[in-house]
Amino acid sequence: MDQPSGRSFMQVLCEKYSPENFPYRRGPGMGVHVPATPQGSPMKDRLNLPSVLVLNSCGITCAGDETEIAAFCAHVSELDLSDNKLEDWHEVSKIVSNVPHLEFLNLSSNPLSLSVLERRCAGSFAGVRKLVLNNSKASWETVHTILQELPDLEELFLCLNDYETVSCSPVCCQSLKLLHITDNNLQDWTEIRKLGIMFPSLDTLILANNNLTTIEESEDSLARLFPNLRSINLHKSAGLHCWEDIDKLNSFPKLEEVKLLGIPLLQSYTTEERRKLLIARLPSIIKLNGSIVADGEREDSERFFIRYYMEFPEEEVPFRYHELVTKYGKLEPLAVVDLRPQSSVKVEVHFQDKVEEMSIRLDQTVAELKKHLKTVVQLSTSNMLLFYLDQEAPFGPEEMKYSSRALHSYGIRDGDKIYVEPRMK
Questions:
Q1: Which of 295, 328, 361 is the last residue of a domain?
Q2: Regarding beta strands 384-389 and 398-399, do their DSSP bridges make them parallel or antiparallel, or are they unpaired?
Q3: Known CDD domains for this protein (predicted)?
Q4: Which residue, among 37, 45, 84, 87, has the nearest Cα to 65 in the 3D structure?
Q5: Structural domain of residue 169, as residue ranges?
Q6: Count of domains for the chain
């Protein structure tokens, strides 16, 4: 059988991990291993291989000499072959079948949709626990074959594969704990429910950047479909428009972590409002959008929720409001306190034996105040000295000697006094 054209896995391995390019380092913690090779092997003592091999974007199209792969990769546990030119599953199988301790395999952005994955080839992946097939355009038939042959698969990455639907596998995958299926086009919740059927032990479901619409499922059904779901990521689910969809998340019996940024429902709220309203509606979560929800924050959010809805018409008040009123009682509205800094004050301006009450802006400088007073005291700004007297200060008047200093920095309040004196020549 003719060997496929292009660079082989073994050729790239030899180039990257030769002693010249990847020198062997002795000492604890270096993670470098030189495996024993068969007697007489031309590759003997040439390669210094770590247990994690990164061979991405190397133009690999085929496996190469399987005997040499087996000789050098017996200790390898992680293999990154992303962004290569592997299009034949048989060639991938030749590599993987000779890496007996492989647990992590990344095949992202290889054109593997051009060939069919047969079950005997998929059997060589049996020990893999984490498999990445992002942007491989792997069909659901390929995924089903993998699921049947990988009994210990725990994490599966299927991002950027242009999925619009989900095809159910004929068998359930009891081992899978994490499914990363972002950046596809899964719009209808009837497709998402199939994931619950296929992966009943799912702990983490990452659905970000899909166009997911409303969650059309009964509470009992959601609990049956995702009985072990602890974390869900719904970032940028463009079709989530109503709070009822958020309330449905409470149906997952073990849900603790939720990510919900960039959905249309939340766009009209401030950042603070979004977080508090979500926390109050989701009583079981302990982490929201990556941040821990502390006990004090939960109570603040739930009290905020009560006050937020207390003036709504009865028909618009969510059921959660009544639950929280039962917990905290009916709360008084918070007093409205204007914390904005004062923009102007009324002061007494003293010049010689004249006293005039004036309103002055606090955003102006001392120099600008002098211009304002020029017509009142009949002095030029260069011939004018200003002194500020805080009515409660024990130290007497303070000279306002810095022309560029803003008036608000003096802490001037209503009723304080400003004295104007001519500069002595």
A1: 328
A2: antiparallel
A3: Ubl_TBCEL
A4: 37
A5: 7-17+48-328
A6: 2
Tens-place pLDDT, residues 257-315 = 999 999 989 988 999 999 999 999 999 999 999 999 999 999 999 999 999 999 899 99
Q: What is the pLDDT of residue 392?
A: 73
Q: How many CA atoms lie within 13 A of 342 on its CB side?
A: 15
2 to each of 64, 231, 332, 376, how far by Cα in Å? Answer: 12, 48, 82, 102
Q: What are 228's two structure tokens?
A: 């072990």
CATH of the domain at 157: 3.80.10.10
In a domain, 412, yes or no: yes
User: Could you please report the per-residue DSSP string of 31-99?
Assistant: -EE-----TT-TTTT---EESEEE-TTS-EEE---HHHHHHH-TT--EEE-TTS----HHHHHHHHTT-
Domain membership of residue 313 (yes or no) is yes
pLDDT score of 241: 85
pTM of the predicted model as reported, rounded to 2 decimal places: 0.74
